[in-house]
Design brief:
heterodimer, A: 317 residues, alpha+beta, four-stranded mixed sheet, B: 187 residues, eight-stranded mixed β-barrel
């Protein structure tokens, strides 16, 4: 495949996805169609129409979902890119010279930066060699995680940046370097966080209270008009009655509503955390940081024992 | 005098009707949707799922936005925060005098459940009262959180000067099977 045909293919794929994005109109999602097979971190997608969606966002990484027309879903890890640039919002491809086109990243409608996809280690090694470009990778075996990462695993799996030691004139990578990668702490958010907390006070009760007060005022005016024609004694009796009503009903109601006084949670609200029973049937995986810490400590202990054994063997030799 | 009298009665009637209509809409929406969850085919449903706090007997449909119209009906997901039930920090807002009124009795340690296709159980860790301009509690965190936001004080008439913010940490996370996952994410 010549360089020109690669460029044409990439432009076709890009335009297809960009036009579909405009048609989709969803900030976090995009309809894309491929006329050639496309490699993704979760396998090869056959030609067809798909929906790509920003599924989840975390502090330093994001989960992207691609849905097939039949409903099958593919999830993979991505990070806000430090280096990728896109002329338009949409998919970004690796400049592969042969074989299947490969997705490099995606800039969703509202993303601050393009999302760069993270490939499984073996795929990333192949892509690095094929393109001569650095590729983000994860190695589930390094973190002692299953090959199919669960949502909890995606959050903790170590990210690597694989890069070729040198690049041939044909654009192929030679050799491999691997370094742990720390993604920028940029939330891959399609919509920015609100500048203020949401308005959560409805005016419904205020309107009802104001309505009743207005009714009361109308009634007072009505009574005053009727009473004004009466002798002074009756007027005094009427005023006393209204005063009694105010003292008896209106003041207790008004005093039950707080003014601008600031309240803080009571001691009972801020009581120590109670143990909570979890529903074992519902639990498929438990997000437990203590367990994670224990696992890492155990791994450290194993590594230290291995190191000690190696030192002992070296000393013996 | 008669004109003033008529104007006062008219204003009272309008105000009571407006306030009453809002409360009626909330009650009607709750009675219609409280038991229902979004179905897989209801892709464009504004209802993302259900929020439950068993100790308070609270069960509310979660809408996909926190605009005035959504919050009149129920509680809403705060745009810009993570997907509810995900590993990020998901925010939900609600009116203090309707949907989130029972939150005045919430305590640290209370259990909160969300059913959005990604079933999750949270435990209340902190209760804070903050200025409305302080959105730091909505930022992404390193642990999966659910942040509930409502106005404070609860009995304040009108636009309250503070926000009552509850942060709960995820303890149980149950990802849905692919076949049963409703397409309700994506905020």
């Amino acid at each position: 495949m010549s360089l020109r045909s690669i460029q044409i293919l990439s432009i076709c794929l890009f335009l297809t996805s960009s036009i579909s994005a405009a048609a989709a109109g969803d900030y976090d999602a995009q309809d894309v169609s491929f006329d050639k097979p496309v490699r993704t971190p979760d396998g090869i997608l056959q030609p067809g129409k798909y929906t790509i969606r920003l599924e989840d966002r975390m502090a330093d990484r994001a989960i992207v979902r691609i849905t097939e027309p039949g409903g099958a879903e593919h999830y993979f890890l991505s990070v806000p890119s430090k280096t990728l640039t896109a002329a338009f919002k949409g998919l970004i491809f690796f400049p592969v010279s042969t074989g299947t086109a490969a997705l490099n990243g995606w800039e969703c409608g509202g993303c601050k930066r393009p999302l760069e996809f993270v490939y499984p280690k073996d795929d990333a090694v192949a892509l690095t060699a094929d393109t001569g470009k650095p590729v983000l990778a994860y190695d589930a075996s390094y973190d002692k995680l299953p090959a199919n990462l669960s949502p909890a695993d995606r959050k903790v799996v170590t990210l690597w940046l694989l890069a070729p030691k040198s690049v041939t004139p044909q654009g192929k990578g030679e050799g491999l370097t691997a370094a742990k990668y720390s993604a920028p702490k940029v939330v891959a958010s399609a919509e920015p966080l609100p500048k203020r907390m949401p308005k959560t006070g409805s005016l419904a009760f205020l309107e009802v209270i104001a309505g009743f007060l207005s009714f009361t005022a109308g009634a007072v005016v009505f009574l005053w008009r009727k009473v004004s024609a009466l002798p002074l004694v009756w007027k005094m009796a009427g005023l006393t009655m209204i005063g009694g009503m105010v003292v008896g009903f209106a003041l207790p109601v008004a005093s039950s509503y707080q003014t601008a006084k600031v309240y803080f949670p009571s001691a009972s609200q801020l009581a120590p955390v109670n143990p909570v029973e979890t529903d074992a049937e519902m639990a498929v995986s438990i997000v437990d940081r203590d367990t994670e810490v224990e696992r890492l400590k155990a791994r450290n202990r194993r590594l230290e024992a291995l190191l000690a054994a190696l030192r002992q063997r070296n000393a013996g030799q | 005098m008669r004109l003033i009298e008529k104007l006062l009665f008219m204003a009272g009637l309008i105000a009571v009707c407006l306030g009453g209509a809002q409360l009626l809409r909330f009650e009607l929406f709750q009675s219609t949707h409280a038991a229902s969850l979004p179905q897989a085919e209801a892709v464009k449903s504004p209802i993302l799922g259900k929020l439950e706090i068993p100790r308070l007997g609270l069960s509310l449909p979660i809408l996909d936005n926190d605009d005035a119209k959504s919050l009149t009906l129920s509680v809403g997901h705060i745009p810009g925060t993570s997907v509810i039930g995900s590993l990020g920090n998901a925010g939900i807002a609600g009116h203090r005098d309707t949907a989130f009124r029972p939150l005045r009795r919430i305590r640290v340690g209370d259990r909160i459940e969300t059913h959005t296709g990604q079933e999750a159980v949270y435990v209340v860790k902190t209760i804070r009262i903050v200025d409305p301009a302080d959105t730091s509690l909505l930022r992404e965190s390193t642990s999966p959180l659910l942040t509930l936001v409502t106005c404070y004080p609860f009995d304040y008439a009108g636009s309250a000067p503070y926000r009552f913010v509850i942060q709960a940490e995820m303890t149980v996370h149950s990802p849905p099977s692919i076949s049963s996952r409703p397409s309700v994410g994506g905020k």
